Amino acid sequence: MVRFENVGLRYGPGPEVLSDLSFQIDANSFQFLTGPSGAGKTSLLRLLFLSLKPTRGLISIFGRDTATLTRRDLPDIRRRIGIVFQDFRLLDHLTTFENVALPLRVLGREESIYRAEVVELLRWVGLGDRVNAYPQVLSGGEKQRAAIARAVISRPEFLLADEPTGNVDPHLARRLLRLFVELHKSGTSVLIATHDIALMDLYDARRLVLSDSRLHIYD
């Protein structure tokens, strides 16, 4: 589903942030991405979400060479990818319900069809009493859970999550991990970037470790 061949990335004239990355991510797979702060985890996620272009090398996603994609192609590819950003990126003028339902609205679905599903997911992530709240009154942990719900509601083919449990307690972190595992069991490939070793130890999955700009893989 994803293939990197000798991918390198640098910002400006400085040294490469990522060097000679060659790996693949299969359909219906689960992996953690880890490494020290500044190792390039977020940069790698941005490459996977097509919001950043590599300096060199080949990236293929869903069988398409990303170098040949036009601006018109990008929305269709991104609709197949769910992403949890570290800064949440909720829309301030939308309620929690509306933010989470946004991917379904973009797909043209009617609220009468998806409303119960969205409300149930919000209850599951502990936001059942925040359905009509706006982002301005949500805590950091609540915003994080809303962002996770928005990313998974459309059951994407590929889910990227950048530190998705960073603002929640260990009990809720385990609950959210179960959500990602269930999504994986339904057919979604999952990549979770995290520093949380205890969280990774809860689930036997492939680990992609970034260190000194290079990637090491432990199956």
From TrEMBL:
Pfam family, one: ABC_tran
Annotated protein name in UniProt: Cell division ATP-binding protein FtsE
Domain ABC transporter: 2-217
Source species: Flaviflagellibacter deserti
Record's subunit section: Homodimer. Forms a membrane-associated complex with FtsX.
Keyword Secreted: no
Function (record text): Part of the ABC transporter FtsEX involved in cellular division. Important for assembly or stability of the septal ring.
Keyword annotations of the record: ATP-binding, Cell cycle, Cell division, Cell membrane, Membrane, Nucleotide-binding
Family of the protein in this entry: Belongs to the ABC transporter superfamily.
Gene3D superfamilies associated with the record: P-loop containing nucleotide triphosphate hydrolases
Signal peptide: none
SUPFAM superfamilies: P-loop containing nucleoside triphosphate hydrolases
Key word Cell division present: yes
Membrane topology: Peripheral membrane protein
Main location (coarse class): membrane
Annotated compartments: Cell inner membrane; Cell membrane
Domain of life: Bacteria
Membrane-crossing segments per the record: none
A GO MF term: ATP binding
Entry's Gene Ontology BP terms: cell division
Gene expressing this chain: ftsE
Higher taxonomy: Bacteria, Pseudomonadati, Pseudomonadota, Alphaproteobacteria, Hyphomicrobiales
